[in-house]
Design brief:
The protein is 29% helix and 20% strand. The protein is an alpha/beta fold. It is globular and about 65 Å long. The structure holds flavin-adenine dinucleotide. Flavin-adenine dinucleotide binds next to α1, α2, β4 and α12.
């Protein structure tokens, strides 16, 4: 087996960053394939009812706009200052963008595992011969497995498909793995598709990030029309206001949400009850599969409550199984690739708007020609923004082409 010239690029994930990488490769006339486990923009569809905090101007690139405009002359782009929902972003930007590279996208095709031909994980560390062999990708398309080859792999698979757990220190709570199929992990559209499942139900909401704030606001709204809806919202920290607001937050939508959620948590006249210093210890799925008995530890003491629904907004984690057989140096704290993670740890910014790109070197790791980009490159650090991902795409192609000045965004 040998590498080919020009190198074949496998891009994993047709989210915003995978598509952008595909577009870049097309402009440079490099052969590429995008493997997508579901639909174009699958993860964004899943949380599509939620509005993005960053405005459209930050979430699109000059290259993407130009490519779309060249195929659809009068394409109506959203205004630069518009904050649109995930669903609208897919419909108005990602799908038209995907049309430009459609012939190279394999949807419903999940990459399961990747290896280096002729080398086990523990072999050839630092040996240039390892980098001369192609990658082997085990891909599954509608239950049929096959092996594909590539010379360069760009992993843009995000983190949204892999939730974290509810229990102490991040392990599953007792009984959680058995109850998992009945728990809603992620952003549930309780005012839309899932309304009938949540109206007039008792709900346990776990988490104190912006996703939990979005869910709490939606459940409070649901309670206005369906007055038996009752939400018990819990957070680990001792603050009575769950959301940490960013002073002079430049993202107005984000600050509005934080203020509203904090207000819901502290008011006593609505259908949301917020408990600080509270964690989940055990979950028992009751016999009818319609409700849960949950043991909570609240300010040092245990109490048991029953809920009809549980929504876990406790974050996501990268799928590391994909590259288990490769030589990837991961951060022990975030599971992001180590070089970038070390630089991110140094910034200590609480506001993702303060994040900057860290240049091509930050994307390299011991496995030659394997790169992690997009939300996954931040591991469990939730400060990733699309505009950083676009910079990463530009940077990775300077490495691939060996042209340090290459910038298709100019
Ligand atoms: C609710 C929410 C709101 C956000 N709001 C903003 C915002 O306002 N502004 C901003 O800049 N960022 C925001 N982000 C952060 C980030 O920009 C998004 O998560 C963005 O979707 C990341 O793009 P991505 O391409 O890296 O990954 P994703 O969009 O997660 O795409 C990954 C793709 O890979 C596919 N995939 C996964 N595993 C495999 C596999 N094994 N094989 C093949 N395909 C696979 C998935 O189906 C998916 O389509 C938000 C995130 C969330 C969750």
């Amino acid at each position: 087996m040998a590498k080919s010239d020009p190198p074949r690029i496998a891009i994993l994930g047709a989210g915003p960053i995978g598509l952008e990488a595909g577009l870049y490769a097309r402009q440079l006339k490099l052969p590429f394939t995008i493997f997508e486990q579901g639909r174009i923009g699958e993860h964004m569809w899943r949380w599509g009812h939620v509005k993005l905090f960053s405005s459209f101007g930050m979430n699109a690139t000059p290259l993407g706009r130009k490519a779309i405009a060249s195929t659809k002359l009068d394409h109506p782009f959203p205004a630069d200052d518009a904050c649109i929902s995930g669903r609208e972003h897919v419909e108005r930007y990602l799908l038209p963008l995907a049309d430009v590279v459609r012939d190279r996208i394999k949807t419903e095709t999940r990459v399961i595992s990747i290896a280096r031909a002729g080398f086990f994980k523990h072999e050839g560390a630092g040996d240039p011969d390892r980098g001369k062999q192609p990658f082997l990708l085990l891909a599954r398309e509608r239950n049929q497995d096959r092996v594909e080859q590539a010379d360069i792999v760009i992993d843009c698979t995000g983190t949204y498909s892999h939730h974290r757990w509810l229990g102490p220190g991040g392990i599953p709570a007792l009984g959680e793995t058995q109850a998992e199929p009945h728990i809603a992990y992620g952003l549930v559209d309780v005012l839309g598709d899932a309304k009938k499942d949540f109206a007039n139900k008792s709900v346990l909401l776990v988490g104190t990030g912006f996703s939990a704030a979005t869910t709490a606001s939606s459940l409070a709204k649901l309670g206005l029309d369906h007055q038996s809806t009752w939400t018990t919202w819990i957070g680990r920290a001792a603050h009575s206001q769950p959301l940490r607001r960013i002073p002079n937050d430049p993202l107005r939508e984000r600050d509005r949400l934080a203020a509203h959620a904090n207000n819901l948590a502290t008011r006593t006249d609505d259908n949301v009850d917020f408990l600080a210093s509270t964690t989940v210890e055990a979950i028992e799925l009751l016999a009818n599969n319609q409700s849960f008995k949950v043991t909570l530890r609240s300010a040092g003491s245990k109490k048991t409550m029953e809920f009809e629904k549980i929504i876990a907004n406790v974050g996501y984690t990268p799928d590391r199984a994909l590259y288990r057989e490769l030589q990837i140096h991961e951060c022990y704290a975030t599971f992001g690739p180590m070089k970038l993670a070390a630089l991110l740890a140094g910034t200590k910014a609480h506001d993702c708007m303060k994040e900057v790109g860290h240049g091509p070197e930050s994307l390299k790791n011991p496995e030659p020609s394997f790169y992690v980009l997009g939300a996954k490159s931040y591991g469990r650090n939730s400060h990733f923004l699309l505009r950083i991902g676009f910079e990463q795409v530009r940077d990775v192609f300077t490495l691939i082409t060996g042209d340090a000045k290459l910038d298709l965004y100019k």
